[in-house]
Amino acid sequence: MTDETQMVAALDARVRRREERRDFFRAFGAVAAVGTGLALTSCGGNDDNSPTPTPSGTPTPTPTPTATNSSGFTDLDVLNFALNLEYLEAQFYAFAANGTGLAATLLTGTGTAGTVTGGKKANLSDPIVANYAREIAQDEVAHVEFLRNALGTGAIAMPNIDISATATSAFSNAARAAGLIGQGATFDPYENDDNFLLAAFLFEDVGVTAYRGAMGGIANALIRQAASGILAAESYHAAMIRSALYMRGLTTPTLIDSTEAISKARDDLDGASDIDQGVRPIEDQSNIMPFDSTNGLPYGRTTGQVLNIAYLNRNAVTTGGFFPAGVNGAIKSSAAN
Questions:
Q1: Who contacts 9 (Cβ-Cβ below 8 Å, separation ≥6)?
Q2: Where do Pro residues bias regions lie (predicted)?
């Protein structure tokens, strides 16, 4: 058996173990986390804090909204904002890894229900990159399920999402803004391993900063705990993608150049602050985790800054980019930069 075959076999076995753990999480977490959340947010007087399981087949009620944060949004508004992002990531990875998107049962909810434009199975020739794609896809689908369970009947529907590969698609416009392609050209994230990793790099770093930025504004301890769990998962994903790009960039330096260009484009969109980094080595060290040099912590973005990047617009708008008709929920507008 070759080293490569052994590596693939080991990764496949790891995926099976992850699926078993995820099945347990879905069965237990939906009752324990959501049930406890309903008890906490309803201000009940149950001293033992034991969750009351939701009867089988009964829709989970919408949790009682918690106090608004400094931006005037509730914790549930923040969770629904996060769900928009998880829809986007889950659809991209599910298509890239498996050739199919989210199940129809995971797309319904409040607000205008949308559709996915584009999406297809990626041409991944590197077995390790292909395993990364499958692993992240499973996690992102689980995040959608978890947030929808936590929000109950208050969960938003999936908005319109553009993950296509045309000359005018969101991916091509993002690549053009970064200088990776010229006018009229197409960036296809499904074409090969490198393009897939660059597209994932675009999403993952934004996901980490989104959850990092939201943490301070979440009042309810249980919801904050759930968000911190997804923040940890997104951080693992981002490190995985950044590591793969760095390693491949050692023999293909243009890949590292591309991460720097995407990083600069994101920074140009989200305002004057320098809160983004590519994977270029600094003083012979890799740069897998972009962080505040003072505290060694990852950067955070406001919801408006996140939407600047998602909409591919540095102005205050409510539609564009990967969400052609905007996102669903109370938090809709990008920031004015």
A1: 1
A2: 52-64
Q: In the structure encoding, which two tokens stand for residue 235, read together? A: 């951080």
H-run or E-run covering 245: helix 221-249
Collapse the DSSP code of 175 into the 3-class scheme (helix H, G, I; strand E, B; otherwise coil) and give the result: helix
Chain centroid to CA 35: 25
Task: Copy the structure tokens of residue 172.
Answer: 């091509």
Measured on CA atoms in the order 138, 141, 145, 146, is the torsion positive or negative? Answer: positive
Listed as ranges, residues in the chain with pLDDT below 50 are: 3-4, 6-8, 10-11, 15, 21, 24-58
**DSSP strands (E only) in 250-312:** 291-292, 297-298
pLDDT tens-digit profile of 181-192?
999 999 999 999
- Site of tokens 């996140």: 306
**CB neighbour list of residue 45: distance below 8 Å, 6 or more residues apart:** none
- How many whole angstroms separate alpha carbon 270 and alpha carbon 305? 5
- Sequence-distant contacts of 124-129: CB under 8 A, at least 24 apart: 124/96, 124/192, 124/193, 124/196, 125/192, 125/193, 126/193, 127/4, 127/7, 127/8, 127/11, 128/7, 128/8, 128/11, 128/244, 129/193, 129/196, 129/197, 129/244
Cα 223 to Cα 228: distance, rounded to the nearest angstrom = 9
Give the per-residue pLDDT at 66: 52
Give residue 135's identity as a one-letter amino acid code: E
110: three-class secondary structure by DSSP: strand
Buried b (16+ CB within 10 A) or exposed e, 40-78: bbeeeeeeeeebeebeeeeebeebeebeebeeebbbbbb
Instruction: Look at strands 291-292 and 297-298 and give their pairing.
Output: antiparallel
């033992």: which residue's tokens? 48
CB 203, CB 240: distance < 8 Å: no
Q: What pLDDT, in 10s, does the model give residues 163-181?
A: 999 999 999 999 999 999 9
Q: Which two tokens stand for residue 22?
A: 């995820």
